[in-house]
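Supplementary notes for students who missed Thursday's class. We covered one full example, reproduced here. Read the sequence, then the structure, then the short commentary at the end.
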Amino acid sequence: MSNWPFWFRITAVGLMGCAATVTGCRKSNGLVLYPVTGKVRLEGHPLTAGSVSLRPEETGKWQHPTGVVNDDGTYVIYTERQPGAPPGSYRVVVFANEILRNDSGQASPGLPRSLISTSYHDPLTTPLRIDVVNQPAPGAYDLELKTHAK
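Structure (token representation):
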């Protein structure tokens, strides 16, 4: 009987951990993070390389959750090396560059050529927006890009 409060506390802590896992949120340095995964398409085809960065709409927030685009077009966002992003509204910045190569296959000097419209590079001009929420609709974080801005 004397150990009952100890076991009660251990059980309560375990149940709180399970509840956090079920809701899909993680904490990083006090931040609540929700999973953000999606697919990036360029003119209807998977983008095979690049990066995705979320820029908060709310001023004063310093986090810029970021992820790398995999060769199948999928991406996962990380904040402070933890998967996920804090809840909120974001402008989405995307970079996808082609490294120029010479005839022997070596990288040529100079700036790489962007594979997408440069409007996606700047948080002030990107047309892409997402809202990070606890339970997003399927495909809520998928991104459709154009080669040239219209």
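Commentary. The longest helix spans residues 4-23. DSSP finds one helix and 14 strands in the chain. If anything here is unclear, bring it to office hours.
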